[in-house]
Write a structure and sequence with these properties.
- With 280 residues, the chain is of the alpha+beta class.
- Helices cover 37% and strands 18% of the residues.
- It has 12 helices and 9 strands.
- A 7-stranded mixed β-sheet has the order 5-4-6-7-1-8-9, with helices on both faces.
- It is globular, with a radius of gyration of 20 Å.
Length: 280
């Protein structure tokens, strides 16, 4: 037991890569620039007004064009949030200096936070009701509809052979995934894990929130609508996107000396807060 505890203390976990695809930027540089410039990614979605939403405010996230990156079969299986996660993962692996050869030769895992996959489910039901024929739904629907759509698809695309499951914990899903990845690596069960979180942006995924009056209706100033600490705040502003981290055990990396972002020292879990990861 003492030897096992000693080994765990010796295993330092580090972040070697990070990627992001969001409403304020499609990569780290764009996001950093938006943050420094105070640039908002919030806007108005006219489709939500047509659907009877109280608030048309949302993060405006451009869908990536994957035609030059993935074949049709793989694209057909990816839900919206899976596309964002894929783009974020490309950047994270690139920064971590992880290529296809490394992925084929090593047991890299994936833990990803994903709360819903509403659009594919609703679209499939609409087809069944209209056509009265389940075959018309298409083969890609099942792979888009399951809550495990991100981990399932990315593990195939990137040849990930390690731990593989989806974490769904509301707003904390992505942070829980990072914390779980840290613990698995720290304990010696895994050496390298892709982790993070992604969220769909379409109206179907947030309709119930809108019905509860949870969203801000300050549509005259979209970029100023999200003000959680303001006395005049009137609600949330929904958005989505994807963010990926590559976590690895530092012991194995010492001989290769790749650049790493931070050492991970601790993690805490909570269902609503998002400050679970403490870095030193």
């Amino acid at each position: 037991m003492e030897e096992s505890i000693h080994k765990q203390k010796m295993r330092r976990v580090v972040i070697t890569g990070m990627g992001i695809y969001s409403c304020i930027g499609k990569n780290q540089d764009e996001v950093k620039d938006s943050l420094f410039q105070g640039r908002s990614g919030i806007g108005i979605d006219p489709a939500r007004k047509e659907m009877g939403y109280f608030s048309a405010l949302t993060g405006l996230v451009e869908r990536p064009d994957l035609k030059k990156l993935l074949d049709r079969k793989k694209r057909h299986s990816l839900a919206e949030q899976g596309e964002y996660a894929y783009m974020a993962t490309l950047e994270a692996f690139r920064q971590a200096q992880i290529d296809e050869e490394f992925l084929l030769d090593h047991e890299v895992g994936i833990l990803y936070g994903n709360d819903s996959s509403a659009a594919p489910v609703i679209e499939a039901i609409d087809v069944i009701r209209a056509k009265k024929n389940t075959a018309m739904v298409g083969s890609g629907s099942i792979f888009q509809s399951m809550n495990s759509t991100i981990t399932m698809n990315l593990s195939v695309i990137f040849h990930l052979k390690g731990i593989n499951f989806t974490i769904s914990g509301a707003c904390a899903s992505g942070s829980h995934a990072i914390g779980m990845a840290y613990m698995l690596i720290k304990s010696g069960l895994q050496d390298c894990i892709l982790c993070g979180g992604a969220q769909e942006v379409n109206p179907y995924s947030v309709g119930s929130f809108d019905g509860l009056g949870a969203f801000s209706t300050r549509e005259d100033e979209p970029e100023k609508a999200s003000r959680p600490f303001d006395k005049g705040r009137d609600g949330l502003v929904p958005s989505g996107g994807g963010a990926s981290l590559v976590l690895e055990v530092m012991n194995r990396l010492l001989s290769e000396e790749p650049p790493y972002w931070q050492k991970l020292s601790a993690t805490v879990f909570h269902p609503t807060e998002i400050t679970y990861l403490f870095l030193i």
